[in-house]
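Quick note —
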Amino acid sequence: MSLLKEVRAVVKWRELLWQMVSREVIARYKQSILGYFWVILNPLAQMLVMSFAFSIIMRIPTSASSNIPYSIFLFVGLLPWTLFSNSLSSSCASLVGSAPLITKIYFPRTILVIATTIAKIIDFLFALSILVFYMVAYQIPISFNILWVIPIFIIQQIFTLGLSLFLAAANLLYRDIQYLLTLILTLWMYLTPIFYPIDIVPENYRFIFQFNPLTVIVNAYRQTILGNGAPNFTSLSIAFILSIISLLIGLSYFKSREKIFADNI
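Predicted structure written out below.
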């Protein structure tokens, strides 16, 4: 299988992969006064502004039957969404931004996309400290069901990687993709229950959310972290299958265009 072949190739070139991850993480805020603190400051500011707008002005509840503080409810959905959208946006431009490497050196091109997504995961882990602080401050109880976060996160990353590979290859050939992606992510964000609970959506419109894998993922995070329960196994299984399909399609498209990357830089 091409997937297993690509995995072996990435493992073989793992030293280059980690060098690229390190380069992206260090170079991003190298000449910044606050440095990597921006990774925490950006989502914190975003969460505070959105909490004020949606919980105080618009008075959106956290759910039909929950007293979870809105700031925590929001952040549990906002963090994975930010990771997802930032990963797609950065991966989309990863091949274009690495033109000298692609034209001069041979290595598995998928490493460029994987390195970008790993760098965004590192950002995510730093930003996660805000959520931990808020949960401790509000004394949110934690159960062993929170361990479900691990497979949920893996499913999310499989789905993200599949889309990232497809977008990176497509954007190299058609530069309009990066502008179209910005529009799609904006619409996608509002069609994902990040700012509002799914149970306040009218029944007639909930079918729209069933076709959105991010809805399943965000709800699964909230069920395990805030609800102290297990996720919906049926929905999570469907999300896993869609994620695998996304990865296979994304990798197949990426490899089919790989030979002409250098000609389109």
